[in-house]
Amino acid sequence: MRVFKSLGLLLVCFFITVRLQSGDESQMYQSLDTLAEILTVAKAKTAVDISGEELIEGAIEGLLEQLDPHSNYYNRDRYKTMKEDQHGTFHGIGIIVGYQNRQLTVVTALDGAPAARAGIRAGDVIAGIDGVDTESMRSNDAVRLLRGEENSQVDLSIIRPGQESPLKMTLQRQEIPTKNVRTAFMFDEKTGYVGLKDFGESATSELSDAISTLTAQKMEQLVLDLRGNPGGLLPQAIGVASLFIPGRKVVVSTQGRLRNANKEYVSEVLSPHEQMPLIVLIDRGSASASEIVAGAIQDHDRGLILGVNSWGKGLVQSVFPLSDGTSGLALTTSRYYTPSGRNIQGNYDSWESYYSPKSSETFFFSEKTSSDSTLFTTHVGRKVYQVRGITPDVYISYRLEPKSIRELQNQAAFFNFATINQERFGQIGRNWRADEGVVQAFRNFLSEKKLEHSDFDEHQSLIAEKLTYQFLLIKGGRNSEEWALQYQLGSDIQMQSAVELFPSAHELLRIFNGELPLREGYSSDLLHYAEKCRIPRETED
């Protein structure tokens, strides 16, 4: 596909060059004729066998690359998957897949779904889907093959660790609901936690239901986790923000080349929930709608933003269905601005630096440039900056893990050990923990697999944490993600800092409500706390 895309890009560049030189509509149509002729000749004469469909798609992708990183063409399969993901349901077998050991592997089998009922479990390798080998298949392509019409069948070839022969299974696809709220629970007696993983069509209602449930459990303060949330639908971002900043306040505004792209979006008049102290967690994986919500909460001084700088996507895409009815074009039509007026879009002159951003730690802890172009203020006068992404109020980086532990994770050692030994260590429940026997068995496993770990004894407690999380995740059944995440958050420095900073969040809520003025040392206290927790490292990755 790389060859097709490169050739397509050359063709598109030719078209764009001619078009820009002419400025005449008739010349544009003549250029299109030339482009069609080049495509025909290329298909007939090039040294590699190129299908017309692949060549055209490569040309389309090449054209869109001249615009920005977020304008995309959705062919029939991608368009269908995108609509299913936004809608919140699809028809499939109920598994989450990823690549482990360079093989398409089941990460989770959803409790009660066709795959789990058929006995498929974490660690199973999906070697074939309807007779198609998955060895060189991308995970997105595998997902599309696994999905289909309701009650249709899919044939799987599964390789299970410890069994010599592949398992052959035929499963019937059923409706699989997708959740925007990953999990919600009481972290302690008064702190509620909600992890929102995306902004699909039901994000606002799911989050509202989760808040209601936690409020009934005596929640007095809330952590909203937007880490790893890539965004989604703009109306859902407005809806989520409205839960916390009601009163027809500006959530975001957009500006574009066309008049109808210039809009101002405001929150709902009322929220169904009593307002309580709020802390929002963000990281480099928080983008788009996540940044709209975090930016609105920050600019209206409604809650504390904690973590590291978010991704930095300040462009708005509109999806235009194409005339064939089965494909679509996501085209950037405007830029969005936070209530204070910031556009947090990252510079994409270099796509390499755009997709591999540098750490924002130096900016946060150094003297910030206070020029008119970068310095903005929140509703009550706190300083915020127009840089790439949302800069948190409190910068807390990730825990720096030893290189040897990261290497074991990259080798899928914890995952492989847990999947092979799913039945070995008794019933896995909420309070199950990896004891000395489990850790020693893992040491023996590393030795058998010739995975060196010279400082094993030094890191035994961290190894036990990793094993506990992995076993809870794959064996907890319906509650697996909640149990695993709740355990993991116990050693999460960002979550721990959030709980410690709730007095500051409570003070900010009183400032938001007009009960207190902003005191002079408020922001300095937050900076001092961030310095105290600062992890000395050069990158956020």
Quick gist of this model?
The chain has 541 residues and is α+β, with helices and mostly antiparallel strands. Helix content is 39%, strand content 19%.
Description:
Helix 7 (203-216) packs parallel to helix 8 (234-244) and helix 15 packs antiparallel against helix 16 (480-489). The chain has helices at residues 2-22, 25-45, 52-65, 76-87, 114-117, 139-146, 203-216, 234-244, 289-299, 351-355, 361-365, 403-410, 413-420, 436-448, 460-475, 480-489, 493-500, 502-512, 522-532, and strands spanning 72-74, 89-92, 95-100, 103-109, 125-129, 132-133, 153-159, 167-172, 174-177, 181-186, 191-196, 221-225, 250-255, 263-266, 278-282, 304-307, 315-321, 328-337, 375-377, 383-385, 394-395. Mean pLDDT is 87; it is low at 1-11 and 13-22. Strand 3 (95-100) and strand 4 (103-109) form a beta hairpin. With 541 residues, it is of the alpha+beta class. The protein folds into four domains: 2-66; 89-177, Pdz3 Domain, CATH 2.30.42.10; 181-395, 2-enoyl-CoA Hydratase, Chain A, domain 1 (Alpha-Beta Complex); 403-491.
